Amino acid sequence: MTPSHPRQNNFLDEQLLTTPQAAHRLNISPRTLERYRCRGSGPVFRKMGGRVLYHVNDIRHWIENVACKSTSEESYEKARVIGSRRLERRP
Q1: In a domain, 51, yes or no
Q2: Which of 28, 23, 19, 21 minimizes the C-alpha distance to 51?
Q3: Using alpha carbons only, what angle is made at residue 53 by residues 1 and 21, rounded to the nearest 5 degrees?
């Protein structure tokens, strides 16, 4: 068995977050983050065995993609839809 390297484990612990940890950093409920994941509207995630993990850089990237300066921007509607409880209806 390979010995564990504390420095490497600390690095991974800081970079990869569980759903509850990621939700806490985003100030949303874990259930909301799960809903985003099911819809494909949340941050990129990794499935490792039975665990879902989020890399902090993917969370940062997702946050930047939903950033808005005005409610008249096209990106505002995209961000609003992400937070909506209803799925978009397609014609």
Answers
A1: yes
A2: 19
A3: 110
Number of domains in the chain: 1
**HEC profile of 3-71:** CCCHHHHHHHHHHEEEHHHHHHHHCCCHHHHHHHHHHCCCCCCEEECCEEEEEHHHHHHHHHHCCCCCC
d(CA 54, CA 72): 31
Tell me the pTM: 0.72
pLDDT digits 0-9 by tens, 33-62? 999 999 999 999 999 999 999 999 999 999
Question: Which tokens go with 19?
Answer: 């759903």
Neighbour tally for 36: CB within 10 Å: 19
Which structural domain, as residue segments, surrounds residue 41? 12-83
CATH of the domain at 45: 1.10.1660
